[in-house]
Amino acid sequence: MVSQKRWALEYNESVLTESSPREKSVETTFAAIFDMDGTLIDNTPFHFISWQALFRKYHKDELSRHTYYTEISGVPIMETLKRIFGADHDEAYLKELLREKEEFYRQEYAPHLVAIKGLENFLAELKTDGVKMAMATSATVEDIDFILNKVPIRDDFNEIVNSSMVIKPKPDPQIFLKAAELLNIPPGKCVVFEDSLAGIKAANAAGMKVVGITTGHPASDLYPVDLVIDDYTNLTPAVLAGLFNGEEKDERESA
């Protein structure tokens, strides 16, 4: 699926605007799967701050931005807690660390909680066009509710897959394959929206198209992807459909 990816980094805003008429797509045979943190809301810097606070409280080495974005972002929290604080601790201890980390995060982020620019209109257009949608996130149910209780997009999703519904975390593709299964759409007809490197690896491993969003990494670090965006302002269902058109044409020509 990586053959068409290099054009993504050159796909600029003028092309999105020019080639994407705001009208119902002719065919809606694909599904859209969205990560949550850093993809629906720009909360990743606040997660970073909360992890730093937890590291300081428990006298761990200072957490660098590079380490956070490459080793922690996009990975289930409990997996990270076990790795950093020791898997030999009992579950009650790790859950208390989780509670403290999430409390730090929610206190910092609550006053700033908004959807990424253009998201709500874009989801409404996808829904109008009959595109099936799922959220597939490593976040906990409590964290999902914290976001969706303030950003009114819950009803846009046909399915919501959380970390408790899979065994293997990103970069394993299991969470995205689970979303495709629930949507009843083949993985090859799904496009994933991701901001994290682990999530992009997972989406590629699932055999899905990938749209990278630059909330945590510059466009040059988001690869391999089919498209890079800064936000959803100029994105339309027609642009997503175009990611699949080349493959459909190739299939017809080779038949």
Count of all domains: 2
CATH topology of the largest domain: Rossmann fold
Question: Which superfamily, in CATH terms, is the homologous superfamily of the largest domain?
Answer: HAD superfamily/HAD-like
Largest sheet: 6 strands, parallel
How would you spell out the order of helices and strands?
Answer: HEHHHHHEHEHEHEEH
Q: Helix coverage percent of residues?
A: 40-55%
What is the count of helical runs?
10
What is Rg?
A: 18 Å
Judging by the overall fold, what is the CATH architecture of the largest domain? 3-Layer(aba) Sandwich
The overall pLDDT, averaged over residues, is 86
Q: Tell me the overall shape.
A: globular
Under CATH at level 1, the class of the largest domain stands as Alpha Beta
The number of E-state strands comes to: 6
Strand order of the largest sheet: 3-2-1-4-5-6
Low-confidence stretches: 1-22, 248-255
Q: Structural class, judged by helices and strands?
A: alpha/beta
Beta-strand residue percentage? 5-15%
- Report the span from N to C terminus: 19 Å
3D architecture notes:
The chain is an alpha/beta fold and 255 residues long. It folds into 2 domains: 6-42 and 115-254, HAD superfamily/HAD-like (Rossmann fold), CATH 3.40.50.1000; 44-112, DNA polymerase, domain 1. It is built from 10 helices and 6 strands. It has helices at residues 13-19, 44-57, 65-72, 77-85, 91-109, 119-128, 141-148, 174-183, 197-205, 237-254, and strands spanning 31-34, 132-136, 159-161, 190-194, 209-213, 227-229. Strands 3-2-1-4-5-6 form a 6-stranded parallel β-sheet, sandwiched between helices. Strand 4 (190-194), helix 9 and strand 5 form a beta-alpha-beta unit. Helix 2 packs across helix 5 and helix 4 (77-85) crosses helix 5 (91-109). It is globular, with a radius of gyration of 18 Å.
